[in-house]
Amino acid sequence: MGLKAAAGTTMLPAKGCYCITSVSVFIPPECPPMGLETLKIDDFQLHASTMRRYSLGAHRGRLNIQAGIYEDEFYEGAWCAGRNDPLQWFEVDARRLTKFTGVITQGRSSLWSSDWVTSYRVLVSNDSHTWVTMKNGTQDMIFRGNVEKEIPVLNEFPVPAVARYIRVNPRSWFSGGSVCMRVEILGCPMPDPNNYYHRRNEITTTDNLDFRHHGYKEMRQLMKIVNEMCPNITRIYNIGKSHNGLKLYAFEISDNPGEHELGEPEFRYTAGSHGNEVLGRELLLLLMQFMCQEYLSGNPRVRRLVEETRIHLLPSINPDGYEVAFEAGSELGGWSLGRWSQDGLDIHHNFPDLNSILWEAEAKKLSPRKVLNHHVPIPEWYQSKNATVAMETRALITWMEKIPFVLGGNLQGGELVVTFPFDKTRSVDKTREPTPTPDDHVFRWLAFSYASTHRLMTDASRRVCHTVDFAKEDGTANGASWHTAAGSMNDFSYLHTNCFELSVFVGCDKFPHESELPHEWENNRESLLVFMEQVHRGIKGVVRDSQGRGIANAVISVEGINHDIRTVSDGDYWRLLNPGEYKVTAKAEGYVPSSKVCEVGYEMGATRCDFVIARSNLSRIREIMEKYRKQPVNLSGRPSLRHPRRNHRGT
């Protein structure tokens, strides 16, 4: 997927000013975006004639950069000139000779202002002093700009130009607004092995993987190829269909595909709940290729993961939205095209709001007596056919209830941060407020395990993607402290199932050009593996009765943590915990609770903590009475309502 380049090429002379003229008619290979949006181009490479204020300086003139809801003195959504006249310019220093082939522009990101440039000129230079204007014959070439502020507009040059510097010179702008722009430049660096800046930022990968964007059919075909390469450890299945009838394919990696093994935890990665955030989708397709290849080559780390974990990869939750974004292209979809499901719903925030149910019960002191602190049931209204619930969301819920996941990560885009529950603020009047779960320390560790092994997330020297400097917080954030969101997949997973779910925002650019995929794979590869390994942190075990049979649905409680989990059908369980000593209790209806101290060490691998619980006396009495069809003993001393005592007087 990419942008078509025009024919012809022109080399600017080292000195002097010449009109740009065509010197050849071949079609060159297309040039990708230089990286204003991906931050490959740093702030020191961006310059402007003037700026209205610092928060609207040249460093903010990046394609798709977002302003906050509350525009402040640091982060606004464009470069805006200090004056509205045709002498203003926005400049990019490529730091080496580059073949420039096009410009993409947007207006200003703002809830309060309407600013965009409607036409502009383009100038290039080798020394930033002498400039050549792109010509149409003898006239300056005027490029059409934007007609509104969000949809990107691409202008490819009829003749590419080779230079170090490029300027965009606005000539007209929206009559009700100001000279404001967000920009991306298309360009191919010319060969120069001695260029320091290029060598400093160059990242290569040695992995032999399919680094390109995959449409729906290509994705399905790639999954099939990997399955055929590793048939003994992989399986393809689908969890349901999208609104448009596309199957939601999942890819399982395990030494026994299709089976839940006693004592083996289940892990999931999902991606693409927002269809235009495609990097996560491609990372999961790369991950399944990598896992297969490394397993076959005998990589001990990958083999251990495959043999001790049942891994599920769901690369495209919202294939309908992806197809819309894919059709527009990697740079031309704007910030939101393809984000929602076909019926206009945000799938990631389309889950039932169980937070409110639990918090209201706690406020009324009904928890845990009437509302448990875990496995909070889905309200009846949400399950009705008339509820505003996407087909994709219903499929996800069924999948989450069917498979006993322990840990999950949903890959998203547009930022560089790992967020953890709760995503909804507890105070109804707050739009952002730290709202921790009872497992806050565990979630913080899980988030840090991904962020700290990512190449950029914790880099204090990197610039912010948009408005928040997450690197100051080690690349992690409580979801509600960023912005409140009811009905998130993360909160639902924590409150309705045993699974701890986090959101991993894998890059500033939601839809990077495919030339960036090897770079992004290197950024995320180690993090993807490390995060999967965290499923083996904490305690695990089996709850059995005195005859050795596993007890399903037994409750596992940890003293001091007001959130329980439950055993699955075979009686096995997994409880994520940080290193330390914990008093753990196993209890089930009709059984006597049992407690023990379990110690979690720092080394990788969950501590075994099994329980044998005996039937309670009352349960045994009831079982015997029911077996022989006897009336249950009324221990309260009150008359039984089922069999009221007869009055024999007068007989």
Automatic annotation (TrEMBL):
It is found in: Secreted. The gene is CPXM2. This is Inactive carboxypeptidase-like protein X2. Residues 29-188 form the F5/8 type C domain. InterPro entries: CarboxyPept-like_regulatory, CARBOXYPEPT_ZN_1, FA58C, Galactose-bd-like_sf, Peptidase_M14, Peptidase_M14_domain. PANTHER family: INACTIVE CARBOXYPEPTIDASE-LIKE PROTEIN X2 (PTHR11532:SF45), PROTEASE M14 CARBOXYPEPTIDASE (PTHR11532). SUPFAM superfamilies: Carboxypeptidase regulatory domain-like, Galactose-binding domain-like, Zn-dependent exopeptidases. One of its GO terms (molecular function) is zinc ion binding. GO terms for cellular component: extracellular region. Belongs to the peptidase M14 family. May be involved in cell-cell interactions. Keywords: Disulfide bond, Glycoprotein, Secreted, Signal. Residues 640-651 have a biased composition (Basic residues). Residues 212-535 form the Peptidase M14 domain. Residues 632-651 are annotated as: Disordered. Its main location: secreted. GO terms for biological process: proteolysis. CDD domains: FA58C, M14_CPX_like, Peptidase_M14NE-CP-C_like.
